[in-house]
Amino acid sequence: MSISATISSTVSATISNVVQGITKLFIDLFGANLAAAYFIKDLGSKRGEVDGAINPVVRVRRNSGDLLSFPAKDVSSGVMLDWVKRPGAFVNDGYETFSNNATGDGFTVTNSFLLANASSSTVSGTSGDVVTVDFDIVVTTGSPALFLRQNGGIPASNSVDLTTDGSKSITLTATGAFNNFNFGEGDNPSEFTVSNCRFSTADGLVNKLYDGALHPTTAGTQVAMNFDGLASHVSVNAPNFQTSDNSGKITFNLIMKTVSTASLFAAGNTNSSTPRLRSYVDNNGAVIVKFDGVDVGDQSGTVKTANNSILANVNYEIEISSTGSNWVIKINGATKSLTAFDDGNTGQWFNELSANAARYITLGYDRKGVVSSSLNDTLDGTIYDFKYYNPSNVLILHWQGYGDSNSNWEDQAGSVDATVYNASGTFDPSVAIHYDAVQDTVANMPKIVEAGALVTEGILFDGDDDFLETSFSPGTASSQSLFTIFQATTVDGNFRTPLDARDTNDDGIGFGIATPIGFRFHVDAADRNATPNTNKEMLSGIYGASASALYQKGTQVSTGSAPSALSGVAGNYIIGNTGDGTGSTSFAGPIMGIFIYSADKSSQRIAIEASLAKSFNITLD
Taking the chain, what is the end-to-end CA distance rounded to the nearest angstrom? Predict the structure, then answer.
């Protein structure tokens, strides 16, 4: 591999601009071959509008369970932190009139004769823990009180009476276990309004890091299967979607080239013209879930979103779930208002299908292997990253769909492989396919806010079980370039990984940290090592032309031969772990940035490192 020390005049000018502070142009300047990029800084994300935000970098979960997406400017300005510290909706227990405000940080109540409480289950802890609650209050009558408690029991902390209007900052010290803070009525009658409520122990968890890379449609870019609107579809025989409590969740990405009645997924018998459970988009761009019958004119057992929920040539993340008693539809993370017809929103799910009716699950059409031109409901566009979660929110099926062969529809989570019918090539999208890094299990989410404070830089991994999974795999690549900025707070005998893609036999590519081997960049069995530390660090791993090299803060520390191509990685890149979720491979500390190139970037390495060093305040060696 040639590691060139000569920088062209163009690259030199680029470095000069970067040194002057033009870091927001990173994606524009160094976007070529950038397969995926994850960062919190404002580096010029190309993510576009998604989940209600323009160019978001992160989707955050606050203690109340709410999710919201934020661009980099809202992270640095404090907007995201302020949202995390809001308790969300309070729960009424006994007030005669009660209404939460529209900003998720207060309520208004009246009460005249019964004991009453308004609680927020956003805090928890044990005796001796301290929670500070800041808020404004207007007391019309009565003397409400603030205290911690466990469930609906007696106070589990000091209780502070609130008899005057104004801005308050109340410190509560727990005298026992607690799982909420509570505004009690104090005496009767009582009438008061709480607003601008914030609490000190709020955590902000990372549900998603958005891929901010620019993904033009060019040769070699990973694309999805083309559903031609005529006959192409995907089906599988007898997946086990039925559950004991009749609930579950399906998610997938959808792009429609034309918006017309088109089946998204359907469950039924191979010879049946009326699937029993079906989701489709109608001519008006509404997303519909229907139980028992394909005829769109028959509205029984149907719910639908508003018209124009789906527009042509827009990439949507769709989530369709059942609680067991009703359906929920989310589009790009936002829960949609549903209109229910005839039978109402029943939430009838796979469990209510007979074994025969659930015999086949089909994507892009309503019947496996059978196409009728008179129905005109095949999908014109693409579906990819189709996932099914059981009632415990455990992923049990994942079809990536990055092509039109059966191998592209093998189950990444289990063994339920799908079959492609009437393949019609790959999809040439007018919008980019992104590889967001996601974690849906709360216990495995890293933090961006800890105990009411913004993580100093990046997002914080606990070294125990936190990780994020991308949807991008290096496969059998013959070149890759990885750049990562992090700070390892734990360096021990465990091989902890800030970024890795490998199989169980350790084939793959990525970074690791352990004693005594130090920092490691591995390409299958070809390892490049450097001396570890617990400071903020930037590692660059360059792989190409049957060679690999590791750079530490811009200085080459190891180089040598490597395989001509990776052995074939089935898994995706994982941030913070090797993918098994175990403490032995979990990274401990903040990760500030991940940049994955699908090419040997030796010629631009110096410029890329200089730009990242400026952005993340790193001094190159």
Answer: 22
User: How many other C-beta atoms are found inside a 10 Å radius of the C-beta of residue 36?
Assistant: 23
> Which sequence spans correspond to the domains of the chain?
1-62+207-215+434-621, 91-202, 221-433
What sign for the dihedral angle of Cα 37, 38, 44, 48?
A: positive
- Distance (Å, whole) CA 314 – CA 434: 12
User: Across 244-379, where does the E strand assignment appear?
Assistant: 248-256, 262-268, 277-281, 287-291, 302-304, 316-322, 327-331, 334-335, 339-341, 360-363
CATH architecture of 221-433: Sandwich (2.60)
CATH 2.60.120.200 fits 1-62+207-215+434-621, yes or no: yes
- The two tokens of residue 314 are 């827009």
> pLDDT (tens digit, 9 = 90+) per residue, 349-367?
666 665 555 567 888 887 6
| 8 Å CB contact between 357 and 210 | no
Would you say 565 and 548 are in contact if contact means Cβ atoms under 8 Å apart? no
* pTM for the whole structure: 0.69
Fold classification of 91-202 (topology level): Jelly Rolls (2.60.120)
Q: What is the pLDDT of residues 62-117, one digit of tens each?
A: 999 999 999 999 999 999 999 999 999 999 999 999 999 999 999 999 987 778 99
Select from 189, 195, 186, 112 the least CA-distant residue to 146.
Answer: 186
Assigned token pair, 510: 């990525």
Q: What is residue 125's DSSP assignment?
A: B
Measure the CA–CA gap between 385 and 211, rounded to whole angstroms.
Answer: 15
Provide the 3-class DSSP secondary structure of residue 256.
strand
